[in-house]
Amino acid sequence: MSSEKRRLIAGNWKMNGSLQEANEFMDAFGGNPAPDLVEVALMPPFTLLHPMSDRLASMGVVLGAQNVYNEDKGAFTGSICPMMLRDANCHYVIIGHSERRSIIGESNAKIRSKMNASWLHGLEPILCIGETLEQREKGITNSVLAEQLSILKGAPKEMPLTVAYEPVWAIGTGVTASAEQVTETHAFVHEELTRLGHDCRVLYGGSVNPGNAEELMSCPGVEGALVGGASLKADSFMEIVKATVKVVS
Ligand code: PGA
What we know:
alpha/beta; TIM Barrel; 8-stranded parallel barrel; 39% helix; binds 2-phosphoglycolic acid
């Protein structure tokens, strides 16, 4: 397992945030308090990437996007390609978020081609995986995760990669997985990644908040968090960052 990796706390704003809210967030956030110990990243909607880019960089916050299209350019109305994300100084891109899998119907094949396109242009994918409540109750969590990770078969091992384990039933619900479930599942995800030849960070996501961050970030095999709702407010996002700094100090 890779406990020595620098933790990543990444905020996924989803379809939230006006220009005014973005400026208010940056006024209040103040910057990464411990860049040697924890990396902080923010994934605002596409419209806020350019306006936030320089200021976030000056605060030591890395920029990322929430999605990307798997082609370089051309007649794909409404899509954003990897080059455009690089242009806005993105380092990360979230790929395969459960909301895109379930609402937009994104397939594993599509997800893999988005990863290839991202790698081609130097972006680091944050590949999201996770089981539904029904799948957990049926006892098939591990096989669901293994199938979602199987898209990494044959993927170049030297390419930058972060995986986020996000149980679908914990996203936006206020219900988090227990420390035991998180530890057990992260151990499986790391095992599977090792089998596939990838030694990368595995984040936890799903209702991470200032009240549970320290416990979740202390679970073995958890190397950071993908934070939705609690990343929209500068103070709660900062509290999660500080809880993580405390865990690794
Ligand atoms: P949440 O979202 O923190 O609001 O549950 C997490 C995510 O979807 O990445």
